[in-house]
Amino acid sequence: MMYFETSFPVRYYETDQMGVVHHSNYIRYFEIARNTMMADGGFPIETCESEEGVMIPIVKVECTFKHPARMGDVLTATASIDKVPLAKLVVRQSVINQRGEVCAEGQVTLGFINSKTFRPVGCPERLAELIRERIDEK
Amino acid sequence: MMYFETSFPVRYYETDQMGVVHHSNYIRYFEIARNTMMADGGFPIETCESEEGVMIPIVKVECTFKHPARMGDVLTATASIDKVPLAKLVVRQSVINQRGEVCAEGQVTLGFINSKTFRPVGCPERLAELIRERIDEK
Amino acid sequence: MMYFETSFPVRYYETDQMGVVHHSNYIRYFEIARNTMMADGGFPIETCESEEGVMIPIVKVECTFKHPARMGDVLTATASIDKVPLAKLVVRQSVINQRGEVCAEGQVTLGFINSKTFRPVGCPERLAELIRERIDEK
Amino acid sequence: MMYFETSFPVRYYETDQMGVVHHSNYIRYFEIARNTMMADGGFPIETCESEEGVMIPIVKVECTFKHPARMGDVLTATASIDKVPLAKLVVRQSVINQRGEVCAEGQVTLGFINSKTFRPVGCPERLAELIRERIDEK
User: Fold this and answer.
1) 0.85 surpassed by complex ipTM
2) What is the CATH number of the domain that holds D32?
3) Which structural domain, as residue segments, surrounds residue C84?
4) Confidence (pTM)
5) How far does B17 lie from chain D, in Å, by closest CA?
6) Beta bridge partners of B8
7) Do A23 and B58 make contact, defined as CB atoms within 8 angstroms?
8) Which of A62, A75, A83, D138 is surrounded by the fewest CB atoms within 10 Å?
9) Which residues contact A40 (CB under 8 A, 6 or more apart)?
């Protein structure tokens, strides 16, 4: 398994009038974990887009909300990959607060498309290689 | 079935560097359809919160992304309810562009909680009644 | 003067834990008024970017917040232009609620840049023409 | 002078179809610097709201945009306070990228209101004290 996590405090503008983080932001936290994982692996998303000409749009999101995050919380967003992707990349994700409570968890499926034609392509080799190495480590 | 739809143009800040609407915004479009439906039914979410003391947090979101929305598009967000809720409200949702293409579709499950204690409560009777009437109409 | 206004309801995700619309959203409402004005004039921002190769970044924003907008409000965002732009476009802006109360008002200065080089260019003639006609009308 | 800074990477959803960070996000970055400063000083905004019953809404924002931030950038948001506030708090702010380039700079004026009545109050003593100490340090 390839696993990555990154932490950040809740931002005020992410709260809503329920006094908790608006649910749409967990989808954004998931993205932060994925993109920070790519940058950490030496192949950031903006390099993938500019050098490989490959964009990685979201195909599907599933997210279950378990515990509200609030202003003052420091959240950890996680991303786990079990399999080297071919046409689709599946990432298991979660957001956990500073007390270890799971705020949200879910799964995101991503595709790969040519950034000019918007047509499906395979997973860029640099990303596949990065995932392969990290999966093998553990 | 209770069905509702509402339309609005894409906003520039909703686009990302792929040149399309960022995926997290479809989750927000879903919410707009639900809240406009409640307001249209004479029981807006802010009344539910302030007069009934009931908040309606999201329990689960599933969303499949099918076609990118872009600046210039006018989107229609839809919400459909098949069943009068007891403890949970399930809403089928979609976002469709001006050419009838489905950009995203999914399902959102909501709960009901007391706005002071954050404990689960049943569906407020005014909301149940509103849904019951509209379901029976069709 | 060229004047334009467009109306829309507050969206739930735009509120924060103060129970009012987060201040950053008024900056976004200003943008909605400007972009809807361009689209209404037959020269939408996405056409300006794709056909003219000109992007219109913000140079400066000033905004005074006068009255909080809340969930349930229907806001009107306005844009007024007094002068046909050369290198810079100055737009006076406001956000007004359904009771006529001014929620925010300010001024936004925009520039024109080549979308490839990011270097300053003059105002595209189609936009200057559009503004000239509308200013002359009144 | 009381000075504070905090750093964070650009988030993908903050970019727009110009390929740079959407201008409204700098207003949010300014807020992050202010709130992190308060938390760092032992008096976080959520404590101010819940324990003192005082909310700190924005009265005025001025922001000049100087250099676009992009995906991959690590930004530093700064907040400087020159004077212990009475009825209004004035904060000078900036956002600087990892190469030291100023992306945006401006000034934010905040007020203090009772969180129940929404009426103006003075600066909470704990916040005034915190600012007084830090200003005197330098």
Assistant:
1) yes
2) 3.10.129.10
3) 2-134
4) 0.97
5) 4
6) B75
7) yes
8) D138
9) A4
